[in-house]
Design goal:
The chain is an alpha+beta fold and 143 residues long. It has helices spanning 3-10, 23-33, 53-63, 72-75, 89-99, 118-142, and strands at 16-17, 37-40, 49-52, 103-108, 111-117.
């Protein structure tokens, strides 16, 4: 399945945070949205970085409780791997495994148009396996 199809199913909404948001604000938004990462963007279109639960844990180890008042742009991962709607979920699975990342923003025409998580990719793969198993059962039942 391609990323465009995946976004049609799951939606294209992306939770973002401005670069000046504090880590306290970031943690609250992650909890509220029940997600593991936010795209850091000052306009909701341009990706400046990504900040995940992992970034926060690493920041806590480095800065202790002072971390809570740091800004998103001080802690975010600035080198963000992105994809396009034409990429396949198989491609994303390989990249996520190789780079040990769990979230990939989707860019189209230079702007943010979605995000894919490892959960989305795993769900897609499980659905594909189920479709294949059902097709095989149907084939055997008709034979």
């Amino acid at each position: 399945m391609d990323v465009a199809s995946l976004l049609r199913t799951k939606g294209s909404s992306v939770a973002t945070a401005p670069p000046e948001a504090t880590i306290t604000d970031i943690a609250a938004k992650l909890k509220q949205e029940k997600i593991g990462a936010l795209v850091v963007s000052d306009d909701g279109v341009k990706v400046l970085g990504i900040i995940s639960e992992r970034d926060i844990i690493r920041g806590l180890a480095d800065h202790g409780l002072d971390l809570l008042e740091k800004r998103a742009d001080e802690l975010m991962t600035a080198e963000v791997f992105t994809c396009t709607p034409n990429d396949t979920t198989g491609d994303l699975m390989a990249v996520m495994t190789e780079r040990r990342i769990r979230h990939i923003p989707v860019i189209e025409d230079g702007g943010l148009c979605g995000i894919v998580s490892i959960g989305d990719v795993v769900k897609d793969r499980l659905d594909e396996i189920e479709r294949e198993a059902n097709a095989l059962r149907d084939y055997v039942a008709k034979a």
